[in-house]
Amino acid sequence: xxxxxxxxxxxxxxxxxxxxxxxxxxxxxxxxxxxxxxxxxxxxxxxxxxxxxxxxxxxxxxxxxxxxxxxxxxxxxxxxxxxxxxxxxxxxxxxxxxxxxxxxxxxxxxxxxxxxxxxxxxxxxxxxxxxxxxxxxxxxxxxxxxxxxxxxxxxxxxxxxxxxxxxxxxxxxxxxxxxxxxxxxxxxxxxxxxxxxxxxxxxxxxxxxxxxxxxxxxxxxxxxxxxxxxxxxxxxxxxxxxxxxxxxxxxxxxxxxxxxxxxxxxxxxxxxxxxxxxxxxxxxxxxxxxxxxxxxxxxxxxxxxxxxxxxxxxxxxxxxxxxxxxxxxxxxxxxxxxxxxxxxxxxxxxxxxxxxxxxxxxxxxxxxxxxxxxxxxxxxxxxxxxxxxxxxxxxxxxxxxxxxxxxxxxxxxxxxxxxxxxxxxxxxxxxxxxxxxxxxxxxxxxxxxxxxxxxxxxxxxxxxxxxx
Length: 468
What we know:
Elements: H1 15-19, E1 24-27, E2 42-43, E3 50-53, H2 59-62, E4 66-72, H3 83-87, E5 97-104, E6 118-121, H4 122-125, E7 128-133, E8 143-147, E9 160-165, E10 176-178, E11 184-192, E12 195-209, E13 218-224, E14 230-237, E15 249-257, E16 262-269, E17 284-290, E18 298-299, E19 324-333, E20 336-344, E21 354-360, E22 368-369, E23 376-377, E24 384-387, E25 390-395, E26 405-409, E27 416-420, E28 429-430, E29 447-452, E30 460-467
Parallel strand pairs: 1-8
Antiparallel strand pairs: 2-3, 3-6, 4-5, 4-7, 7-8, 9-30, 10-12, 11-12, 12-13, 13-14, 15-16, 16-17, 17-18, 19-20, 20-21, 21-22, 21-23, 24-25, 25-26, 26-27, 28-29, 29-30
C-alpha cells in the first residue's frame, strides 16, 4: 500500500462509506483506505519528539457526530477496551484512560471550529486513539477508533525518488526542453472484433528552444502511451505579436482540464531576459483554451490573467510578486480554481521567490490574490497536489527548511514542513489524476517529468518515480 503522508488528518468519505463500517471498526494505517479516510501526523515545529494533530472540521460534511481523543495506558487494541460505553457515560471512571479530550461535541447544527492544534509527544502517540461516534446518522449506532499506534511517524518516512530516461525528450544537440507541465491522461475506447480495447494517452507540455533558459522560447507538447517513451507532436503555443505582453517568449506551461475544455496556463515575457537590480524582466501569466489537448489553442483576449502586483512604496520592500509571476500549478478546491504560482519581488533568485495563490470562480478568471500571500517563502518551483483534505507542495530549490522538503497545508493555505527530501526535482511536472476532482481523495504523486542535465547538453526532460 503506498505510504500516506504524515499529519493527523481525519477525512471521511461520506455517509454511505460510514454506514459500511458496522457496529465497531478498529481502523489502522493498513485499513484506512477501506473506510475512505486519511490519517496523517505532522511534526511540531521547534519541539523534539512532539507531533501536531490537525483535524479539519469534517462535521460540515458529515453532520452530527462526536469525536474524542483517548489516551490509554492499556496496550489492548481499542475494540477490546469498550470505549463506546465509556464515552457515552462520562461519569464512569476508568483507570486505564489517561486522557479523554472532546474533539467534536455532538450537535445537530455543526458550528464552530474543531480543536486543530492537538499536540502529542512520542510516548502518547503509541497509545492514543481517535474515537468517532455518530449515532444519529447510522441506524446501528456505529462507531470506530483510529489506532494511532499503527501509523509511522514523520521521522520514519523516506521518499525514494528514482530517475529514468524520458525517451524522445532526452538530450538532443541544439535543443532545449524544460519546465514540463503537469501530465494528464486521455482514454479512448474501440472495438477490435468483439473485444472492447482501451488506449491511454498521456500529454505533457513544455518549454522548447535552443538556449538554456525560457525567456526566448515557445511551448511544445508530446504524447506517450506508457509515460516512458514520448512522441514530440510539435509547437502548441507561439509567441505573441509585436508589442504584446508575450512577444519575446511563452514558457513554463501547465494544464487544467474541465469537463469540456482544456486550459493551458503559461508565462509570457515582453522583452529579452534581464536580471539586474531594477532591470529584471517582468513576467505575467496567461491562458490559452482548446476543445482538445491537441489544440488548436486560442489565447484569451483578457490575457494576461495575472500580472505582477504594484509596488507598495510604503513598505521596506516591494510586494511579494511586484516584478514577476511565473510557474502556474492548478487545483480545483471547494468548487473554485486555485492558481498556485511563483512570485518574485527582485532578482528571481530562489531565496527571493515565493509560492502564492490566487483563486477564481471560473477557469478563465478573474483570479484574486489571497490576502495572506505568500503561502510559502523561498520556494523556487511550484508543484502542488491534493492529499486527503489538504494540499502538499514540493520544495525543490530554496532556502534551508523549504528547499528539499515537502510542505503540507490542511486548508491549502497554511503550510508547514512535512518531511525532508534527499533528492531535488528541478522544475517538475507530475501526473496528478485527482487534481481537478475536488473530492478530497487525493494521494501522493507517483511519477512525472522534470529537467535533467548532462555535461555538454542543453536542459532536457527525464522521468522520475516516487515511492513514499
